[in-house]
Amino acid sequence: MPSSRLAALRGFLTRHALYVFYIVGALMTACQLTIVNFYFWREVKPDWLAENTLMNLLSVALNALADGALLMLPVLLLPRRVKWLQWILIWLVTIWCVCQLLYHPSYLEVMPFSSFVLFQNVSGILINSALGNLSRGHLPVVIFPVLLYVAYRLWLRRAMVVGAPAKARRWAWPVLTFYLAVRLVNPVCLLPENNDSDDYWQNIKMNYTYVQHHREQYFKSNGLVAFTVYSAVEWVNDLRGITDQDKARIKAFAKANNSYQDNTYASHRTNLVLIIVESFNSWAVNMKIDGREVSPTLNRLCNDTVNNIVGLHMKRQAKNGNSSDGYFLYNTGMLPLSDVVVATMYGEADYPSLAKALGSRYHTAQVTTDALPFWNLVHTSKSYGVQTVYCKDSLEHYSKQFNWLQDKAIFTYCRDVFPKLEEPYFMQIVTQTMHSPYNSTTVPPTWISQSRAYTPEVRNYLEKVAFFDRELEGFLQFLKDNSMYDNSLIVIASDHSDVVDMSPQGRPSINKDGDDCALIILNSGRGMNQRGVFGQIDVYPTILDLMGANRYWWKGFGNSLLRNTVESAATSPEEVKGNSHSALAPRQRQAWELSRKMIVGRYIPAI
Predict the structure, then answer these.
(1) Which of 1, 57, 436, 570 fits as disulfide partner to 129, beta carbons 3.0 to 4.6 Å?
(2) Could you give the CA distance from residue 129 to residue 356 in angstroms, rounded to a whole number?
């Protein structure tokens, strides 16, 4: 570039450095948010482009641009000497975007703000899971602010401080007007599918005060700033506690669910063994690769519906608490929160639970390779009535012995512990091998990895399924060999489902939604093939039935599969899967609201 043009460019940057920084920063932020939205779309629907109109894309772009303009506004308003504070906001937005890109592929939901402070959950498996979700397409989210920072340090910083015009603050009103205009026009005019009535202002009100289905939809429709404000308002509302009217509604719901106390469906088994399986997708059952069964043990158990209770259409109701939400659902019969993690924010409470329903004569224990601080296990175990936790410290020798093949360590440890238990006992075994990521296999490869069927991610996941299957077979045989099998009700349940492969050629060929979990109950004294859709919330009352514990006052928010014809499940207050017109659907939706009020209000009704 000729020296005259270079001098002119430097002069321009010196005179207009503040405005250049503001405009470039706003465009950069808009680009970051658009990338997040793009990956959210692609991960939920691999064929997203074919299903979205130009208006949808324009809506997202306007939201991102409006957010960028507003989030960069402080640099125009701050005093000259502290304009560097804008960088705090820039890096916070960048961190939020990066965390969402690493979190969303595993859980298909927006990472809640409360999860950003869960430092006790940082572990090797969590880091590996997040890194496994990295993509080259994520790089601009980090590269753009780095390049802007370099330009700021080299050319803009001094000019912004020395030559910042006082009239820059006049831009605040046009920026605010633009943002508000987008917020009033965009959600109703560009996204007509959001409209539930012909009343414009009613649609606007519902758009900003109500989350339909998933929080990622709120972010897509309204942008980051509105999503942050909504989350803050919801948090403040939770702090207000619970009203007398809410208490009356909860008590009425609980009484209706508590109308039976008979033990007609009792299996007459002394002990309860609950095996909570990490990321167990029901589509893995009866999978074959090159004509060979991936999980022969699980297949045999699921195909024997004469002696076992089997449900392969159990819908995931675990939310951002992921595995901890699965424990919460099965132990308490309550639904989790969608915006914060129950185990960490509300872990210290006297929840009704399976352990308390079985009574004080039962010894209750949990076996897990997690450390006590993980998902606040140190407090939730007490809240659920678990007396003994065999955790990471107890199993570390076994983990090292088996080269960190965690499910082998867990089941081997159980074989050492079980003979020492006095009956009756309630044992919870929490597996881990099938945890993400699936970009590589963490178990010894078998013939599955040699196949060309499906995608590498699917094969890696199925290697983990096969490994768990072999360890489960050995554990069940051990119980039989030591005369402990026949006297125990054995429940095998997914903690949650997981999306294994984001590519179109991988996921839809197996299961389009990928949200079906599995429930297998052995030694129930009866057989049953639960063909209809049901929820994780229905496991708790079903276990109460089978354990003959219906004298306990709390039957949970779900429905026993033995007493009711369950063919639907509410995965949010408004989203019902299966038969959305079933007689149970209204109460299934209502349960989300009432469960939330019980949790945040720390209210347990006395019945």
Answers:
(1) 436
(2) 35
Q: What is the distance between the alpha carbons of residues 128 and 277, in angstroms, rounded to a whole number?
A: 19
**Residue 403 φ/ψ region, left for φ over 0, alpha for ψ in the -120 to 50 degree band, beta for the rest:** left
Gap between the Cα atoms of 273 and 537, Å rounded = 18
Here the tokens at position 505 are 């050629």
CB 432 within 8 A of CB 276: no
DSSP secondary-structure letter at 316? P
Instruction: State the DSSP string of 369-421.
Output: SS-TTGGGHHHHHHHTT--EEE-HHHHHHHHHHTTT-HHHHHHHHHHHHGGGP
Helix (H, G, I), strand (E, B), or coil: what is residue 259? coil
Closest by alpha carbon to 9, among 171, 149, 159?
A: 159
What DSSP string describes 190-215?
I-GGG--SS-HHHHHHHHHH---S-H
pLDDT along the chain (607 residues), means of 10: 60 71 94 90 64 74 94 88 89 94 80 75 68 83 94 81 69 90 78 64 76 76 91 83 89 86 94 97 91 96 96 93 92 91 86 95 92 82 92 87 90 94 95 89 92 89 96 97 95 92 55 81 95 96 97 94 95 90 94 93 80
H or E segment and range at residue 272:
strand 271-277
What pTM does this model have?
A: 0.83
The per-residue pLDDT for range 101-156, each reduced to its tens digit, is: 988 877 777 888 877 777 666 666 667 777 777 888 899 999 999 999 998 888 77
Which helix (H) or strand (E) element contains residue 535?
Answer: strand 534-535
CB 577 within 8 A of CB 514: no
DSSP helix/strand/coil, 143: helix
Count of CB atoms situated within 10 Å of the CB of 512: 10
Q: How far apart, in whole angstroms, are the C-alpha atoms of residue 164 and residue 153?
A: 16
Distance between CA atoms of residues 518 and 134, nearest Å: 28
pLDDT digits (tens, 9 = 90+) for 219-275: 888 899 999 998 888 888 877 778 889 999 998 998 888 789 999 999 999 999 999
With H, G, I as helix, E, B as strand and everything else as coil, classify residue 368: coil
Q: What is the 3-state secondary structure (H, E, C) of 58-94?
A: HHHHHHHHHHHHHHCCHHHHCCHHHHHHHHHHHHHHH
Residue 295, CB-side half-sphere exposure with 13 Å CA sphere: 25
